[in-house]
Write a structure and sequence with these properties.
Shape: globular
Order of helices and strands: EEEHHEEEEHEEEHHHHHHH
Distance between the termini: 49 Å
Oligomer: single chain
Structural class: alpha+beta
Length: 234
């Protein structure tokens, strides 16, 4: 796999379609790490709860400092295929996760900078269709994913991680609940008297309006309860 650095104005040639000999080859024997917004979109596409989705389709893992991360569970077959792929493509394509949606670009830690990722088997780069990175982002519906990934970075890039040697126990459970099990977190928000005391009413009402707003609130709640940031202080 090769990589090169791009900006929003950089151009590249790429197209993926059923006529390519490598079609769906990238949907097998691969680690697909799901972000919280991926889980939200995918569980809604399947019409199931976030808890059912997590149990059936994911493997919980621990990243740096014990940070909860979620890996898509591949099928138990020789090819280790994605559970949502068929010979005709992805069955949840409009709500496919970030790594599948973004390929062949990947955002770096620096805003406005991207990697162009080229797998050796991928024939898509031999196609004539030319894009700028900005055009690709628009075409693939990446803008809400970029927005939510930026919000999630306020958690993962918090300087307060320096105070934590390793996340475990109740703080780990709260992080996992808030960021990934959004339906269960919704019940927690509804039933928790502590939240009503701490969080301004108007902020809480916004979080109740839709799941995207709720997930953004969940990131703030993790920053407040797990990382000790004064998010809700007046």
């Amino acid at each position: 796999m090769s990589e090169e650095i791009l900006t929003a104005e950089s151009k590249f040639n790429f197209a993926c379609h059923k006529g390519l000999s490598c079609y769906t080859q990238c949907c097998r024997k691969v680690n697909i790490w799901l972000l919280p917004y991926d889980v939200l979109r995918m569980k809604n596409a399947l019409g199931i709860s976030s808890e059912e989705f997590l149990v059936k389709y994911t493997l919980p893992r621990k990243g740096q400092k014990g940070l909860p991360v979620v890996l898509l569970k591949m099928e138990d077959n020789e090819e280790k295929t994605c559970p949502f792929v068929t010979p005709d493509g992805c069955t949840i394509y409009p709500d496919r996760p970030w790594p599948c949606r973004a390929y062949p670009i990947e955002q770096t830690e620096k805003d406005g900078e991207y990697h162009l990722i080229k797998f050796p088997f991928c024939k898509g780069f031999e196609e004539k269709r030319e894009w700028t990175v900005e055009e690709w982002i628009e075409d693939q519906g990446l803008k809400p994913y970029l927005e939510m990934e930026k919000a999630y970075r306020t958690v993962t890039n918090s300087p307060n991680w320096e105070r934590i040697s390793y996340l475990k126990g109740e703080p780990w459970q709260m992080f996992y609940l808030a960021c990934y099990n959004i339906d269960k977190f919704k019940l927690f928000v509804k039933e928790s008297p502590m939240i009503k005391k701490i969080v301004p009413k108007e902020r809480l009402e916004r979080a109740k309006e839709d799941e995207t707003a709720l997930l953004k609130f969940a990131f703030e709640w993790v920053r407040f309860t797990v990382l000790g940031e004064p998010v809700f202080e007046k």
